[in-house]
Write a structure and sequence with these properties.
The complex is a heterotrimer of chains A (about 450), B (about 290) and C (about 375). With about 450 residues, chain A is of the alpha/beta class. Chain A has 15 helices and 13 strands. Chain A has two domains: about 45-185 and about 320-410, Rossmann fold (3-Layer(aba) Sandwich), CATH 3.40.50; about 190-315 and about 435-450, Rossmann fold (3-Layer(aba) Sandwich). In chain A, helix 4 (about 85-100) links the parallel strand 1 (about 70-75) and strand 2 (about 110-115). In chain A, helix 5 runs parallel beside helix 6 and helix 9 crosses helix 10. Chain A is globular and about 65 Å long. With about 290 residues, chain B is mostly helical. Chain B has helices at about 1-30, 40-55, 60-85, 90-115, 140-160, 165-175, 175-180, 185-210, 220-230, 235-255, 265-280; strands at about 130, 135-140. In chain B, strands 1-2 form a two-stranded antiparallel sheet. In chain B, helix 3 (about 60-85) crosses helix 8. Chain B has one domain (about 1-220). The longest helix of chain B is centred in the N-terminal third of the chain and has 31 residues, at about 1-30. By secondary structure, chain C is mainly α. Chain C folds into two domains: about 25-305, ABC transporter involved in vitamin B12 uptake, BtuC; about 310-345, no CATH class. Chain C is built from 14 helices and two strands, in the order H-H-H-H-H-H-E-H-H-H-H-E-H-H-H-H. In chain C, helix 2 runs antiparallel to helix 10. Classes of the chains: A alpha/beta (about 450), B mainly alpha (about 290), C mainly alpha (about 375). The interface between A and C is large, with 57 and 63 residues.
């Protein structure tokens, strides 16, 4: 009997392994494309070649580029708790379809997107990224969502010299020159905190501020940056509370903060904690000035707040809001609404600001690929690191994308303060846009920049 | 001082949510001696059903009642098709099945209803009923508590004074003998699961206004509900409510006044579970279990 | 027939084993880097599930918290190699000792709790683990996590790639661990452990020191899970970071699922289970990403309905069913007769009956 069980196990294992081998296929190869790479490397400027350590690169610089296709890969949650992020992809998929079908692609090449599901798990993102590069043969990774997820892949991509373009997170970590092949997209969360500090300095210089933040690096960016930004001013932090990602009920924390009677509160929150916190504040007698994270501003989040709870909240943006009537006749907005409906998925939500963000990312990628000297990895990266005041997609005309090789790796550093009005149903701009061009690394506390 | 009372009231409010889910857990345990790890997700799913009816124009109370009825059927079906074939004795397999239901129901809800959050209407208004200075007790808090206590009373009547209740108690205590005496064990088990599912639906409907209806509605609540049921006693509905309130209040007060638990409130729930199981495993109101040798 | 004689059955078994060994050894030469890394993680996970099998399958103490021990092992290795420049392999003893002590620490109060209550406590502990990591972020890197230095193939390995090296190292540890655990289970100690699962009171009456064995088993089980976590982290070819989101309650649940899918009280079941939980989500994602978890949950449920004793138990039933119909004289019978090998109970002298443990929900 003992032997029988073991023999069963052995047979079963054999069968399973055979299945997997058949399904997955082998394909272990040596990557030896030295000559091609040399030729490609020559077309890149010296400075860029240096920064991108092109000489040490092992991979194939033209992988994923054929005469009629450009293969792009991405990994983001399409299932599970964070599946809401998948809506970003509806934006850029619509844009790629538009470019492919109406504009003939990029230089006659169609954009082919392979998007794998990682359920927001960094381990799966890592496997997906490698799989996209090794098995699917993509040219570049694009808009991978999640800070931990990008951290799990950026070392390997750096070594293999694969572009990790326009990561979908606002972490200040992506400014790291040690990972030249990774570029962010979202304005850094730390910039927001500085903007709120400056606004308070101007409008309420002796303000007492309460902080409610998520209990992870996202929330930490707000706390540490704001603390640093108010040094030397008369603004004081009177209370700090955090909440768990898994348990976004902030009633208790808000009660605690309300007891201080602070003049202002900064909500470093995301997802459902946003409307929850707004409702909780609304339920007390406390009436602080409310500054809320830019990640909360979509109608699918703030829209869940009780009537009146979101009135007057202040946030930031770098993109045009589809609900804002000032863009009703705007060409880019009309293009988005028209082509988005035509080329997007049947259930695309064109009022959702994260879809607008996705659309803009698609435009940014297409522009980068088009403006690159040629379609090789170093050349495209050089372009991504040298974006010259580009207003594309639904970026605000005052918030162009801008990077400078070796100096500024943050594409979006100009933010517009805005305030929500319940009556109007959208955000009104407050004051002039704040230009942090090239300053993200300066204003962000060091502890947030080193991973 | 006012802060203290406000946190206590917050604690009662969240405690009611824990208590509601704990009631469902207790009901299943009482009728089948099983822990249903999928209770929260089933509750969430049924809240989405209620939401559908609200969306179609039904008044919220009616929508909830309809959803509870549908859930009742659903719970009975789950028992019959997924739980009973595995066999109550195979505890490990049951744990896996309930976990499988957890995963599948959550994903199914996402596929059907999408991943965005929704606003769920309140049964009671979020307006103050009584106010002492800065301390407010809302209609919602009192109303929710009232509903829970009514449910406890009804369950008590069910178990103590009806034939069905007696049958349920018999089946939970000794299914074999019950079968021999002529009790339709299968149908009683289905009833137990059905009732529990309905209660879960109620729990979801009570939680959703504050937490916003989404896929994750019950995920933060489940472990606290387990703590509540452990504290109160897994076979006592009253224990579930009392336990829930204590867990809620402890969670808030610990988070407020004890440095260690600030931002770490789940630790207080865990501590509670551990202490109860070590010191008095049957909980405050549960009955002591004696094993026959 | 004497033990040493070569029967056809043994010959077939030998051939199967050899082919299997050859395949397993050939994997790193055949597959691309990311697949090899995936197989390496299967190996690490199967070790963890083996530890769980010892505790839950053979000793009857249900743990929904082994992801936490795994995580402790993982973080121990990560912290020591990243912040203190230890060599990767030298962190293994530290991880194992630490997890053993933790296992004992949990096992002691667990003496008073059993069945579903123990499941509940271990569930709570596993839920708490990522929060504890975030709480002590100075040491653990908080939610950003820690980058683990590459586990590189040494010079004498003849130009082997890092992913291949990691695979072979993990495989070696796995083989050693599986052999040791199998021997443990078959020894007197193993019989005591199993006796406790099958009936505590009876075992006690027969002279088995319950407290000692139960706590010891918890400790050893946790130690094995810690070893697994430590090895998991060394698989740096594809993933070179630890962060708390990788070690949540979901992981513990997956371990338990893997255990039951493979066959709770078997030695090789954990390997099948590990293959399942690593590869099935990937394939279900390809079928339909949104429904992938529905498929995964559905498969779990279906497996428990059809094969409540896991794959190995299921194969046994199929085989028994076939044998019943064949009868002693080899003739195929229409009607099924009773077969002594069928049924959920083990034979008297077999330490791994392929059946599932029965656990009372009552508090002890």
């Amino acid at each position: 009997m003992i032997r029988s069980n073991r023999s069963r196990a052995l047979v079963a294992l054999l069968a399973v392994l055979a299945l997997i081998a058949a399904a997955c296929g082998g394909g272990r190869e040596d990557s030896s494309s030295g000559e091609e790479n040399e030729a490609a490397a020559e077309s890149t400027g010296d400075e860029a070649a240096d920064y991108l350590h092109v000489d040490d690169c092992e991979g194939d610089f033209t992988q994923g580029i054929t005469d009629d296709t450009i293969k792009i890969g991405s990994s983001f949650p399409q299932s599970g708790t964070f599946a809401a992020f998948a809506q970003i992809s509806t934006g850029y998929e619509a844009y790629f379809n538009y470019v492919n079908e109406e504009l003939g692609g990029i230089d006659g090449r169609q954009i082919e997107l392979t998007a794998l599901d990682d359920g927001y798990e960094a381990g799966r993102t890592a496997t997906n990224a490698q799989r996209l590069v090794e098995e699917e043969g993509v040219f570049a990774l694009f808009n991978v969502i999640g800070t931990a997820n990008n951290l799990a892949i950026w070392d390997n991509l750096e070594e293999e010299c694969v572009p990790n373009l326009f990561a979908g997170t606002g972490s200040p970590l992506w400014g790291d020159p040690g990972h030249a092949w990774t570029v962010g997209s979202f304005p850094s969360y730390s910039l927001e905190a500085v903007m709120y500090a400056r606004y308070l300095e101007e409008n309420d210089p002796t303000a007492e501020v309460a902080l409610l933040t998520q209990n992870d690096d996202f929330g930490e960016s707000y706390v540490e940056t704001f603390t640093q930004a108010i040094e030397g001013t008369d603004i004081t932090i009177v209370a700090e509370e955090t909440y768990e990602v898994a348990n976004p009920d902030t009633t208790s924390q808000v009660t605690s903060l309300a007891a201080t009677g602070a003049d202002a509160v900064i909500l470093g929150t995301t997802a459902l904690a946003c409307p929850n916190a707004l409702n909780a504040i609304n339920g007390t007698n406390w009436e602080p000035a409310i500054f809320i994270s830019g990640t909360c501003t979509s109608p699918t989040l703030v829209g869940l707040a009780e009537p009146g709870a979101a009135d007057g909240i202040i946030s930031v943006t770098a993109f045009k809001d589809p609900r804002d009537p000032q863009w009703a006749d705007d060409e880019a907005m009309q293009l988005f609404l028209e082509k988005g409906a035509e080329h997007g998925a049947a259930d695309i939500d064109l009022e959702n600001t994260i879809v607008a963000y996705g659309w803009t990312m698609g435009a940014l990628l297409v522009d980068t690929l088009t403006n690159a000297a040629e379609l090789t990895r170093p050349a495209v990266m050089e372009q991504a690191l040298n974006i010259d005041n580009l207003v594309t997609g639904l970026a605000l005309p005052t918030s162009p994308f801008n990077t400078v090789l070796g100096i500024d790796k943050f594409p979006e550093e100009v933010l517009q303060l805005m305030q929500y009005s319940d009556d109007l149903g959208y955000y009104e701009f407050l004051g002039e846009p704040q230009d942090f061009e090239g300053q993200t690394a300066e204003v962000t506390p060091e502890s947030l920049i080193v991973p | 001082m006012e802060l203290f009372f406000n946190q206590v009231i917050n604690g009662i409010q969240s405690g009611c949510i824990y208590a509601a889910l704990a009631l469902a857990l207790v009901l299943i345990f009482r009728s089948t001696s099983l822990l249903n790890f999928a209770q929260g997700e089933m509750a969430m799913f049924s809240t989405f059903i209620a939401y559908l009816f609200v969306d179609w124009g039904a008044p919220v109370v009616l929508a909830i009642i309809i959803a509870m009825a549908i859930s009742m059927v659903g719970g009975a079906v789950i028992e019959r098709t997924l739980i009973r074939p595995v066999g109550v004795d195979n505890v490990l397999a049951i744990v896996i099945v309930t976990i499988g239901i957890f995963i599948a129901v959550n994903a199914l809800a996402g596929w059907i209803y999408g991943t965005d959050g929704r606003v769920f209407p309140r049964i009671f208004a979020n307006e103050s009923l009584v106010t002492f200075g800065d301390v407010t007790i809302t209609q919602e808090t009192v109303g929710t508590l009232g509903i829970l206590l009514t449910v406890v009373a009804l369950l008590y009547l069910l178990f103590q004074y009806t034939k069905i209740g007696l049958a349920m108690r018999a089946v939970a205590s000794n299914p074999e003998s019950s079968r021999l005496v002529g009790i339709p064990v299968g149908r009683v088990l289905m009833l137990g699961w059905g009732l529990a599912a309905a209660l879960g639906g109620l729990a979801g409907a009570l939680a959703a206004p504050q937490l916003n209806l989404s896929l994750n509605l019950m995920q933060g609540v489940l472990i606290y509900a387990f703590a509540a049921a452990t504290l109160g006693g897994f076979d006592s509905p009253l224990g579930a409510v009392v336990g829930g309130l204590i867990v809620g209040v402890t969670q808030n007060l610990a988070g407020q006044y004890i440095e260690f638990f600030d931002g770490f409130e789940l630790g207080s729930a865990l501590l509670l579970i551990l202490v109860v199981l070590l010191v008095r495993p049957q909980g405050l109101f549960g009955s002591k279990v004696v094993t026959r040798v | 027939m004497s033990r040493l004689a070569l029967s056809p059955r043994r010959a077939v078994l030998g051939v199967v084993a050899v082919i299997l060994a050859a395949l397993v050894l050939y994997i790193p030469q055949y597959f691309e880097e990311f697949r090899v890394a995936q197989f390496s993680s299967v190996i690490a996970i199967s070790i963890a599930v083996l530890g769980l099998a010892l505790l839950t399958g053979f000793n009857g103490q249900i743990s929904v918290g082994h992801g936490a021990f795994f995580g402790v092992g993982a973080y121990t290795t990560a912290i020591l190699t990243a912040d203190h420049e230890w060599g990767h392999l030298s962190t293994i003893p530290v991880a194992m000792v630490l997890c053993f002590l933790l296992g004992v620490a949990v096992g002691l109060p667990a003496l008073r709790i059993s069945g579903v209550y123990l499941a509940l406590v271990t569930l709570a502990l596993a839920t708490l683990f990522p929060l504890v990591i975030q709480k002590y972020s100075d040491i653990t890197g908080g939610s950003t996590g820690i980058g683990v230095p590459d586990f590189e193939a040494p010079a004498w390995a003849g130009g082997m790639a890092d992913d291949q090296w990691a695979y072979y190292v993990l495989l070696t540890f796995a083989v050693i661990t599986f052999v040791l655990v199998r021997n443990l289970v078959r020894s007197r100690v193993g019989r005591a452990i199993i006796a406790i699962r099958d009936g505590e009171t009876a075992a006690e009456v027969l002279g088995v020191n319950l407290a000692f064995y139960k706590v010891m088993t918890f400790g050893i089980s946790a130690m094995i899970a810690g070893l697994a976590g430590s090895l998991f982290v060394m698989n740096t070819a594809v993933l070179d970071r630890v962060d708390p989101a990788q070690y949540t309650i979901t992981l513990s649940i997956k371990f338990l699922a893997a255990l039951v899918i493979g066959g709770a009280a078997t030695i090789l079941g954990p390997v099948l289970g590990a293959l399942f939980i690593v590869f099935v989500p990937e394939y279900s994602s390809e079928v339909d990403a949104e429904l992938s978890n529905v498929i995964f949950g559905g498969v779990l449920i279906a497996l428990m309905l059809v094969l409540p004793t896991g794959f190995l138990g299921g194969l046994r039933r199929i085989e028994a069913g076939i044998l019943r119909r064949l009868g002693r004289d080899g003739e195929w019978r229409r009607a099924a007769g009773p077969d002594p090998r069928d049924g959920p109970d083990a034979e008297a002298d077999s330490p791994d009956p392929g059946g599932s443990p029965t656990v009372e929900p009552a508090a002890s």
